[in-house]
Amino acid sequence: MISVDEAQARILAAFTPTGTEVVDLAHLAGRVLANDVKSPSDQPPFPASAMDGYAVRRSDGEAPRKVIGSAPAGHPFLGPVGPGETVRIFTGGVIPDGADAIVIQEEVDIVGGDVQFNASAMRPDFIRTAGLDFKAGDILVPAGKRITPRDMALLAAGDITEAKVRRLPRVAIASIGDELSAPGSPRQPGGIAASTGYGLSAMIAMWGGAPCDFGILPDNAQEIATVADADAELVVTLGGVSVGDHDLVQKALGTADFELDFWKVAMRPGKPLIFGRLGKTPILGMPGNPVSALVCAILFLRPAIDAMLGTAASQRTTSARLKQDLPANDGRQTYIRARLIHEGGDVWAEPFALQDSSMLSVLAKADALVVRAPDAPPAATGDRTEIIPLDGY
Amino acid sequence: MISVDEAQARILAAFTPTGTEVVDLAHLAGRVLANDVKSPSDQPPFPASAMDGYAVRRSDGEAPRKVIGSAPAGHPFLGPVGPGETVRIFTGGVIPDGADAIVIQEEVDIVGGDVQFNASAMRPDFIRTAGLDFKAGDILVPAGKRITPRDMALLAAGDITEAKVRRLPRVAIASIGDELSAPGSPRQPGGIAASTGYGLSAMIAMWGGAPCDFGILPDNAQEIATVADADAELVVTLGGVSVGDHDLVQKALGTADFELDFWKVAMRPGKPLIFGRLGKTPILGMPGNPVSALVCAILFLRPAIDAMLGTAASQRTTSARLKQDLPANDGRQTYIRARLIHEGGDVWAEPFALQDSSMLSVLAKADALVVRAPDAPPAATGDRTEIIPLDGY
Fold first, then answer.
1. Quick check: A50 and B199 CB within 8 A?
2. Which terminus of chain B faces fewer neighbouring Cβ atoms within 10 Å, N or C?
3. pLDDT digit string, tens, across residues B182-217
4. Whether pLDDT at A283 is above 70
């Protein structure tokens, strides 16, 4: 058995970024950039007013100004502002030649058609210099970043209409087990509905991959070996990794061109995890228990997808305080399903009483996994503990 | 001017949940349930083994057991287990009649074909009772919950093949301003690319709505009034809310059937916010500055979408420690763009030096908004402060 850290490192080492494709601006959200995207131009492209007011020359001091025109956004004033002159201007309007400050409209009096104000009204100048937001050649969004809605607005402001991104990594999912049938389909005695694959597909899509369903396979080496045909960057099997004294998936893959990297990780839930290569394709054999499989997905599949996207690991642990005592841990790293409670300016983790690895109802209600290191000493109520938040997945 | 809290409350009061539609299991992730989804059956449907081992009768004590058959998952053993008998069983296998404990395979010796073990090996029993995960009639996922990948697995396990969810709320976006043109299209002097709408569309989709682009409209009351034609549950306008002394959007809508709820919120960035009704359709007039508009979207549009989805508010504030001193605040609630730094088991918020509401580059880099209440006293480095994390949007 190897540690969780070693298993994560070995899995990460097995993946390289996928190829690229060019995607238009409107569809970039959630995609990962293959290259830095640089701005072709300055933003704003010209010195612009930050407020509604009057564009003035500072050197005129407090002398009244004569209004010679206006500069709304999108309609520049076409002449210079001379001594004693001003141009009515609006937020986003181009600063006319000769002007070097904006006096906001709240600070002026209109007297006999002239604009009057105190000298102090010319500080600050309320001018956005050309390139204040970004300059031509600046990196707007760096390679490897997963594009957020805010990045989308930034790219649009930089006149970017398309970008090169990583192709969605294809992850094939095969559910293994004679007991499985599709939800809603007739059930034989002793049968249950295949469930993990639905959760896993949704996680893969959320994490930036393209899930492909390889269906339900029986506990039969020949059938299981057909996963070698999956057209994917990664094959995930669910179940069949720990059946009695032998391992069906390993046995099945032995007939294909399978090279084992590791089997079994010192963790709970999820010990029987296989990782290896099937020809050129990495294969991750996950446990049949749905909770074990989904926890393994969070720990091992998400980093694999990040690696295929060429993006920094998005899994972040944080901390919370324990709502109850925990006993000393054994040699396996343990992930305890817990509710998070926001109380007194702090976050508390309250483990669920039942932690059986078949209980999807508990995992679905959980807000976080409390991480217990191998051989961790007992922990007391109020102690800070490492957690993996499960927001959204 | 009204407070942010009052503005949020007035906006929330204006929305009711959208109608419903039935969606099949594979497409439920991210949708919001209109009704509780209850399980039609127990899970597991039968008492099942939690381990690989042997199904035994406790009352036989330590007597050797004769193996009379096997019960892999999906293949129940069809007879009872009599005195002195045992059935080889695997994880997920049906507990045969007569058996009341599983002895795990690691605890047995096979002697002359018989299975031998110590009595202590029969505790715990490693039996998952029927309905351990959930029982027929239990609520699997409650009405109003946005379905996560884990919920998907749970619904599948409950044999749910479809569910009634809220229709995606349609949100029309109109970008207003003579200075605007689409990214990549030719630009007149003083013009800039329309950018906010791209970020806003991606946010709306991420928050569970259906964005519809109403395009770019000039600063012209007649053109702006055409937003009354949008086929949407909510119309959002960007810009045109504070042009000089008058408000173009209000003026434009005055010609349509517009009823103002409020105008101007005591906040920074984002003061010139309009909310009202256009006939039956709520309309949210947001500022033209992209940062102001996107901050207003986070504060006001997301709760509106939540209300239309009939789901609990998903905006959660949390806390961080300040990396620098902050001056006293004025009467407007202020949202400061900041980076979050994880250091020494704590989270620190470091405000960016430049906070201009035109600077999308700063908003895109920010991890959180630091919330400063109206008239907040100065804050010192190390003080805890309220933040709105911007994860993913």
1. no
2. N
3. 999 999 999 999 999 999 999 999 999 999 999 999
4. yes
Q: Do A150 and B242 touch (CB under 8 A)?
A: no
| Banded model confidence at residue A335, pLDDT cuts 50, 70, 90 | very high
Query: Is residue B227 domain-resident?
Result: yes
Say if A133 falls within a structural domain.
no
Does A122 lie in the same domain as A161?
A: no
Contacts of B104 (CB under 8 A, 6+ apart): B51, B52, B53, B121, B126
pLDDT > 90? residue B94: yes
Alpha carbon distance B1, B13 (integer Å): 18
State pLDDT tens for residues B232-271.
999 999 998 766 555 677 777 777 778 999 989 999 998 8
| Closest Cα in chain A, distance from residue B325 (Å) | 21
CA atoms within 13 A on the CB side of A276: 21
User: CB–CB of B238/B293 below 8 Å?
Assistant: yes
Domain boundary among A128, A156, A176: A128
Task: Search chain B and give the residue with CA nearest A134.
Answer: B361
Task: Say yes or no: A260 and A360 in one domain.
Answer: no
CA proximity to A4, closest of A264, A305, A259, A241: A264
- Chain B partners within 8 Å of A318 (Cβ): 342, 347
Residues A25 and A151 in one domain: yes
The interface predicted TM-score (ipTM) is 0.94
Domain that holds residue A105: 48-128
Q: What percent of chain A has pLDDT over 70?
A: 98
In terms of domains, do A161 and A201 share one? no
Q: Which of the listed residues A261, A287, A309 is the one where a domain comes to its end?
A: A309
- Per the CB < 8 Å rule, is A360 touching B203? no
Counted domains in chain A: 4
Determine whether the interchain pair A50/B356 forms a contact, defined as Cβ–Cβ distance below 8 Å: yes
Helix, strand, coil shares of chain A as percentages rounded to 5?
20, 35, 45
Stretch 328-357 of chain B: residues touching chain A, C-beta under 8 Å: 342, 345, 347, 356
The answer to whether residues B28 and B162 belong to one domain is yes
Axis-axis angle for helices B302-309, B4-13 (nearest 10): 30
Which residue in the set B243, B356, B361 is minimally distant from A90, CB to CB?
A: B243
Q: Does the pLDDT at position A252 exceed 80?
A: no
Dump pLDDT digits (tens) for B126-135.
999 999 999 9
A97 touches B at CB < 8 Å: no
pLDDT at A273 over 70: yes
A108 in reach of chain B (CB within 8 A): no
